[in-house]
Amino acid sequence: xxxxxxxxxxxxxxxxxxxxxxxxxxxxxxxxxxxxxxxxxxxxxxxxxxxxxxxxxxxxxxxxxxxxxxxxxxxxxxxxxxxxxxxxxxxxxxxxxxxxxxxxxxxxxxxxxxxxxxxxxxxxxxxxxxxxxxxxxxxxxxxxxxxxxxxxxxxxxxxxxxxxxxxxxxxxxxxxxxxxxxxxxxxxxxxxxxxxxxxxxxxxxxxxxxxxxxxxxxxxxxxxxxxxxxxxxxxxxxxxxxxxxxxxxxxxxxxxxxxxxxxxxxxxxxxxxxxxxxxxxxxxxxxxxxxxxxxxxxxxxxxxxxxxxxxxxxxxxxxxxxxxxxxxxxxxxxxxxxxxxxxx
Length: 344
Prior knowledge:
- The structure is a single chain.
- This protein is an alpha+beta fold.
- Among the domains are: 139-229, Beta Barrel (Thrombin, subunit H), CATH 2.40.10.10; 248-341, PDZ domain (Pdz3 Domain), CATH 2.30.42.10.
- The chain has five helices and 20 strands.
- Strands 1-2-3-6-5-4 form a six-stranded antiparallel beta barrel. Strands 7-8-9-12-11-10 form a six-stranded antiparallel β-barrel.
- The protein starts with 15 loop residues before the first helix and ends with a strand.
């Protein structure tokens, strides 16, 4: 006779195999609930930011100086109720006026107030007094991985919303105006989908605050935005007031270089800006700066590379004698120098 072994149920009344299956089903249900909750939170964050900003984003149709319309060539973001909008300098290049169309159907004529190709920012003013002004955030507080929302008019589709994350911070974007070139620093990289027409539109955080102005599509899943920070606000203020941004000019070409140990120890930092080339007739050449010198301070501001120098060359230095501290042959020296205004 074959002995039969009794299979006893567990305390919950299920056989071991049934219990395993029930546990798996319960785990799947919990996973689905968590995912649904996360999706609801994501959707809520994106839709809240979009609802706040869509009324502030316009599609720009620019009229070129040569005559004719440029088509729906970009986007712009209203930042004051009385008609000021920010966009990219390249969107309104070669134009003085055009039309800004908002998602509610309002179509307002605008004039270009000022352009700054070296930051790829421009300000236009629309003929309106009750625009919905977008709130500005601070790109300096962004974190890699943070959710961001892009709003613009890609390919002419008004009020389009895409979302993604901050893929990287601290990127650089080369900008040029005539013979002058400059690196736009701390550019935001995002995987939010950007397409032609998004340029000049808003990149926002989940609270609907503009943290960047979309400027370039560098590849699939790789968009770039000029950061909205303290420096951006100064540029916009200068464009609104003067129609341009004044920058000081030294006339040097250089790059980062490590300092000798003794000088580094004395200054408490390891690098400065090496002067690789001096431009003929430049303020730096006239003051006695030499190729091979390493600039470590300008008007009392520490200089450790090209970015520091660019940030220091503000308009109020133009025509004013300042001290340049540099390392030469292992020792520190000071030279008085009077910056000129950068002409582009």
